[in-house]
Amino acid sequence: MLVKLLSIWLLFIHSSWEMIPDDDSSCYQQCFHQPPEACPNPGSACRCRQLTNCKRAAVCCDINDDNFQDALKCGNFTADSVEALHIRNATLDELNISLPLWRRLRLRYMTITDGHIRSVAGEFAKHSVVSCLNLSSNGIGKFERRALVYLHNLSFLDLSRNNLSEVPSFKMEGPMKLDISENPSMMCSSVQKALNRSDITFIKENSTVCFKSTEYHWFNSTDIIELSQLKRLQEIETECYKNCTCKPHRLDIVMGKSPTFTVAMNCSGAKMLSLPVPLPLNTDTLDVSNNNITSLKELSHESYQHLMFLYADNNQIRSIQPLEGTKFMSNFDTLSLRNNKIKTIETYLLSNIRFYRTDSTRHMNLGLNKLTCDCSTARDFKVWLLTKFEHIRDYEELWCDNMNVRVIDLDETKLCQGEQEWTDYIYYVITVEVLLLVGLIAKVSYDYWVFKTSGYLPWPASKMPKLPCDWLCE
Ligand SMILES: *[C@@H]1O[C@H](CO)[C@@H](O)[C@H](O)[C@H]1NC(C)=O
Ligand SMILES: *[C@@H]1O[C@H](CO)[C@@H](O)[C@H](O)[C@H]1NC(C)=O
Ligand SMILES: *[C@@H]1O[C@H](CO)[C@@H](O)[C@H](O)[C@H]1NC(C)=O
Ligand SMILES: *[C@@H]1O[C@H](CO)[C@@H](O)[C@H](O)[C@H]1NC(C)=O
Ligand SMILES: *[C@@H]1O[C@H](CO)[C@@H](O)[C@H](O)[C@H]1NC(C)=O
Ligand SMILES: *[C@@H]1O[C@H](CO)[C@@H](O)[C@H](O)[C@H]1NC(C)=O
Ligand SMILES: *[C@@H]1O[C@H](CO)[C@@H](O)[C@H](O)[C@H]1NC(C)=O
Ligand SMILES: *[C@@H]1O[C@H](CO)[C@@H](O)[C@H](O)[C@H]1NC(C)=O
Ligand SMILES: *[C@@H]1O[C@H](CO)[C@@H](O)[C@H](O)[C@H]1NC(C)=O
Ligand SMILES: *[C@@H]1O[C@H](CO)[C@@H](O)[C@H](O)[C@H]1NC(C)=O
Ligand SMILES: *[C@@H]1O[C@H](CO)[C@@H](O)[C@H](O)[C@H]1NC(C)=O
Ligand SMILES: *[C@@H]1O[C@H](CO)[C@@H](O)[C@H](O)[C@H]1NC(C)=O
């Protein structure tokens, strides 16, 4: 009898071991998630059941507004009996997490997925210890903004596949994984706030998009922005050169490639003595006005290859020579060098710039530089200026340093006069030289003919002393 009782007792212990194994770590990774097969069988009156293979875990299925409270009650859950709960296929108008039934439990894993929930209301209680909250795939459209602020233990928040327009607020610090993928109405401004925190890791980044709001005007061509692009926006502001500000300038969309941002860097009045090197990735606009930059030589640096707009007014730049052969020279849209220390403008450099009629925006500003004017300024540069004046918008503000006259008013006939006479003189010299040469050849030929026919050398060849070379010839 005793033996029998003992063996039954042992059997009971054994079977209870089998029912709830010690090692149920497979039930909870970061979160608690059960397949549809774990649901109570369709015939059972209670739509909730405690699991036998996982300790202190329960699954509820097919819950709606009418049977919600009853279902949770009939599951006999207490704070001691359940710390992981998965509710599948809940059809609710509103999920109110302030309701007393939630406060009675001390859930660490709360999973409500694959249902239809219109909105989430209320807030979690201050002492909540939820570490993973999965509200995925419910089509939730409204979420009480402060619902999650007291979840200090939260480390995983899955709000994927809903219809949220904002990321709800949650704990202010500590590492967290966040999945907001497949919420097509998510506003970018809200996502950017979450991006601002370095301790948040986004899950399923590639399927996370957000919907642009008006402040993202550079996305004019598209309504949906990928998270990676938004991250790039964030980086642009932080990767900037010291004393400068960086902003996204344009979104370049090339079919088959992921869109890239171009960067506009503004270093106006940053007390610079030379052009900044290197520029941030894809910088196409650089404003270095009001500095003490003396040279453009950094323009040939590799990081300047995307530059198209350069504003360098009010500096000490002396020469445009370093432009020669740079990518900027052939690509630029705007080059502004007003009020610098340029003395000479190499016209041959400028004539390499192609100003097409179609790109009416392409232009240079050169005004308020004091040029050293000479004949070539009047003859070459002035002419270039007058043919390209549409593209040199301040062409009337170019003055000569050595004479009180504007470059476009230079008088070529006056400036180039001296030069003209000198060139004429050169022609006379050349003419005389040619005549002398012809005379010499004629005389030598005549001497040779006389020597051949009469055997003597005419004067002066006969009177000249013999040279060592003559000995050789003889
Ligand atoms: C979800 O629950 C509703 C009842 O609330 C039920 O009619 C429906 O069949 C369930 N769907 C699934 C996929 O189980
Ligand atoms: C809950 O407890 C009641 C009695 O207290 C019991 O009849 C019922 O079967 C229990 N439900 C579950 C799902 O265990
Ligand atoms: C949520 O439930 C709490 C407690 O019952 C109640 O005070 C609150 O008004 C409810 N919120 C909403 C939006 O229904
Ligand atoms: C959350 O629930 C969804 C839908 O059932 C599931 O696909 C996802 O893997 C769950 N997330 C986690 C972290 O378990
Ligand atoms: C919740 O976090 C607190 C510290 O913030 C910690 O002491 C406590 O153990 C955590 N609770 C759980 C259940 O993880
Ligand atoms: C999602 O929300 C937007 C507005 O926020 C609404 O226009 C749209 O119809 C909703 N989509 C679904 C599937 O509920
Ligand atoms: C992100 O943080 C920076 C400063 O760290 C702040 O200037 C900026 O406004 C923040 N952006 C958002 C969207 O909160
Ligand atoms: C996300 O996209 C990037 C490039 O767009 C790719 O390198 C990466 O492997 C993708 N990640 C996943 C998880 O698909
Ligand atoms: C986008 O549109 C806004 C207003 O409609 C305009 O101010 C802005 O310049 C545009 N941005 C681009 C890059 O075209
Ligand atoms: C930034 O500005 C400060 C003063 O405004 C100056 O002392 C410093 O040299 C500048 N840094 C650079 C890199 O130009
Ligand atoms: C750079 O900033 C200054 C003021 O700080 C502003 O006047 C200027 O227009 C900006 N440059 C560009 C290209 O936006
Ligand atoms: C440039 O340097 C001179 C002195 O060398 C100084 O007086 C002037 O303020 C500087 N200009 C700028 C814009 O920093």
Automatic annotation (TrEMBL):
Q: Which InterPro entries match?
A: KCNMA1_auxiliary, Leu-rich_rpt, LRR_dom_sf
The positions making up the signal sequence are: 1-18
Biological process (GO), any one? monoatomic ion transmembrane transport
* PROSITE patterns noted in UniProt: LRR (PS51450)
Specify whether Nucleotide-binding is a keyword of the entry.
no
An example GO CC term for this entry is: plasma membrane
Membrane topology designation: Single-pass membrane protein
Q: Main subcellular localization, coarse class?
A: membrane
Task: Tell me the Gene3D superfamilies matching this sequence.
Answer: Ribonuclease Inhibitor
Q: What is this protein called?
A: Protein halfway
